[in-house]
Amino acid sequence: MIAADIFKSLALQSSDLVINTRQWLHQHPELSFQEKQTSAYIAQKLSEWNIPFKNNIGGYGIVSWIEGKQPGNKIALRADMDALPIQEQTNLPYTSIYDGIMHACGHDAHTSLLLGALYILQQLKNEFNGTIYGIFQPAEEKIPGGAIAMLNDSFFNNLTFDAVVALHVSPEIPCGKIGLKAGPYMASTDEIYITVKGKGGHAAMPHHINDTVLVASQIIVNLQSIVSRLSNPNIPTVLSFGKFIANGATNIIPDEVSIEGTFRTFDEQWRKEALPLIQHICLHTALSMNVKAEVKTLNGYPVLVNDANLTEKIQRFAGEFLESKNIIMLDHRTTAEDFAYFSQRFPSVLFRLGTGGENDCSFPLHSSKFNVNEHVFHFGHGLLSFMAYKLTF
Fold it and tell me: What tens digit of pLDDT does each residue of 128-169 get?
């Protein structure tokens, strides 16, 4: 069995390749469901390294595979590759060339690290049994997401995996460390759209109109009971509203007010129960104040569950590669990930790869100044390839 030091050495030798890949991807970001150029770039690299692949899966998705010396376990590594509608403000020499589009969530790093891992594993394919797959997934940032689109593609009809591993960069964790959590780790996410309709008019004559602004405000207040009184306090739950549009004036109450928010939790049964409760509270609050409410729910990603047995293995392998002192155990995270669809179908784990520790790398995910500590490209793909290699045994 190959020691971790060999993977560390191979990662260091190929670090420039991974850094150059990441910088090119960072300069050429593409939004969800539009990753045509990114997909072509990945295909070009795989072709250069004689790694077979199938493209255009569930959109611009790609699945590649490296077969070992004999049949055995099927292990998959997954990376997302879409960018965000954000104007970059990093002043990096390889800043985005497209106005209003930026790799502000690290998907450029995820893709380049997966490519680097496959580059290493291709060199070692006679040292393991089974098959290691590389899944390059589009559209993680936009519901319904690229994961479910790929999994619903006929390519996956007869394909199963013994384990699927994904990583996500984290500026909150120092470079050189990783974070893990077994069981439910990331929340489900559903989008809530509420429209309050009534008879608007002059704000100085409230007895002649329906105060849609007041009703909409009361709906938001009443909905807080979903979290404070109706949910099990042992189940983390978030119901937040970030958009409230009442396009009236100082003395005009509008006919219509719109509200948009998000509901997140870690229990699928409670999720099913809560969404009808949200609708019930909205409709009856509006009715009690003589206006109408329309409620639409856009179902998003399910709860991401890290398989306990696989998480224990990944923790052990990471300890071999990084030393156990560099493994951090994480809490629940109420952000969402469409990797959750993989976790529903196969034993899966998503871990956090630390990229923090420098001043220009301390900005949070989805920030216009987000950047990744490039030291991670000296070892990150070695860690990922080592994990996949160990899982083949």
Answer: 999 999 999 999 999 999 999 999 999 999 999 999 999 999
**105 and 28 in a common domain:** yes
| Residue 76, helix vs strand vs coil | strand
CATH number of the domain residue 10 falls in: 3.40.630.10
Do 179 and 351 touch, CB atoms closer than 8 A?
Answer: yes
- In this structure, are 145 and 31 located in the same domain? yes
Do 51 and 175 fall into the same domain? yes
Threshold 0.90, pTM exceeds: yes
Single out the residue of 333, 152, 153 nearest to residue 236, CA to CA: 333
Residue 241 scores a pLDDT above 90 = yes
Domain that holds residue 35: 4-186+303-391
Looking at residue 87, what is its pLDDT?
98
Indicate if 290 and 336 belong to the same structural domain.
Answer: no
In sequence order, what are the beta bridge partners of 80?
A: 137
Asked whether residue 214 carries a pLDDT value surpassing 90, the answer given is: yes
Q: Are residues 224 and 81 in the same domain?
A: no
Q: Are residues 260 and 332 in the same domain?
A: no
Give 51-108 pLDDT, tens digit per residue: 999 999 999 999 999 999 999 999 999 999 999 999 999 999 999 999 999 999 999 9
Give CA separation, 80 vs 33, 191, 319, in Å: 12, 22, 25
Q: Which CATH number covers residue 208?
A: 3.30.70.360
Q: Are 226 and 278 in contact (CB under 8 A)?
A: yes
Side-chain half-sphere exposure of 109, counting CA atoms within 13 A: 26
Q: Decide if 199 contacts 257 (C-beta within 8 A).
A: no
The string of DSSP letters for 152-181 reads TSGGGTT---SEEEEEEEEEEEETT-EEE-
